[in-house]
Design goal:
alpha/beta; single chain; seven-stranded mixed sheet; 37% helix
């Protein structure tokens, strides 16, 4: 992606509004905010139904996207941004929470299933493919018999919040590496 003519479209998944700001499901938004700080830009409304920041990230032209829809309807805004910016799917990166990974673990992959993640399901349906890059941020499984749907909408615990800035920063580093060095090289460093 470090071709000067290419653009990386980096999508952080989350739910809009202050009620969801520090919930586990909003980790994609938190990482996107960190990346926007690195670009030196502020999110602004876009006709695709998302907020966007354009700039250079680690020397690569990048568009950061936060859908303004709720998580389960992320596909429309993501597909709209892909079309508007004419981004090939190999340059689409989606940052999301992952229940099946321990808290703070970062894993990267291309394609695969959605593992019950409704935001990914919506994106795959809208794009007609699952073949896009994913940066998965581990949020761990819910305790006891708590419903995963309730768990992802809960705020991070006090202990998790103490470590959160470090993990968000590390995840942003992984995204920068992904768009400059590629998937395999980044997996070798972050897995």
């Amino acid at each position: 992606m470090n071709n000067p003519d290419s653009v990386a479209l980096i999508v952080g998944l989350g739910n809009p509004g202050p009620r969801y700001e520090l919930t586990r499901h909003n980790i994609g938004f938190l990482v996107a905010d960190e990346l926007a700080d690195r670009i030196g830009g502020k999110f602004r409304a876009h006709k695709a139904g998302a907020e966007v920041v354009e700039g250079r990230l680690a020397g690569v032209r990048a568009v950061l996207v936060k859908p303004r829809s709720f998580m389960n309807l992320s596909g429309g805004p993501v597909a709209g941004a892909v079309k508007f910016y004419k981004v090939p799917l190999e340059s689409l990166v989606v940052i999301h929470d992952e229940l099946d990974l321990p808290y703070g673990t970062i894993r990267l992959k291309r394609g695969g299933g959605e593992n019950g993640h409704n935001g990914l399901r919506s994106i795959s349906k809208s794009l007609g493919t699952r073949d896009y890059l994913r940066v998965r941020f581990g949020i761990d499984r819910p305790p006891g018999r708590m419903d995963p749907a309730d768990y992802v909408l809960k705020d991070f615990s006090g202990a998790e919040r103490k470590e959160l800035p470090y993990f968000v920063d590390r995840c942003a580093d992984a995204v920068e590496s992904l768009i400059t060095k590629g998937l395999e090289a980044t997996q070798n460093v972050f897995h």
